[in-house]
Amino acid sequence: MRGVFFLSFVFPKFCVSCGSLDFFSEIMAVCKSCAKQNYLPQKQILNQKQTNPPSDRFVFYDQTFHLQKRGSFEKSLFQSLKFENERLLSEYFCLGHRTILKFLKDDPPDLIALVPSSPKSSPRPYHASDALLKKWKKLWKIRRDTNLRKISADKQSSLGFENRFFHAKKAFEFTKSDRIMEGLHVLIVDDIFTTGATVNEIARLYKQAGVRKVTCVVLLLSGGD
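Structure for ComF family protein, as requested:
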């Protein structure tokens, strides 16, 4: 603990938005004033909850949740998190993660998986959703599935709406095909939901493997550009 205070003294972490320094900026790179002004509890609410299987036969996830919606403030912070290595911002985007637990308490997940962001296996690049995955893995004490991998080097962000779905079809696979997945509830964690192509394809792979239910949780809900 002393080491943390020493590092804060020597390398203070200022708010990435306004440049202020306080306790909040030290732990999540956003000061209390900016967080209070921009973060609303309403943004923690459920994006989509489906108690029954989706009516669309091409939708394979059963329910999705988001922690925040993308506005200009969130967009700026998210870009800093993903492209400027401001890793503390992941704590800001995890705010309110416990509110979703009440929707899952009657049917908690058996397995948790992080959407792979790169086909590289080692060293694994930093993922914006790492913090959220670690928090929930600890809360539920459930196993993480590391058998999901990305086999395409293409970026979804560079593709149009329809092409995202075509790309996703060939972008992921399991490293092992003989696993027992029958009847499990899988929780998929990702950083952003734009079209849903990525999480939908991963959900399809899990359902094909015998999974009973797939829940998706993302840090940020985006309506696309």
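The CA atoms of residues 43 and 68 lie 5 Å apart.
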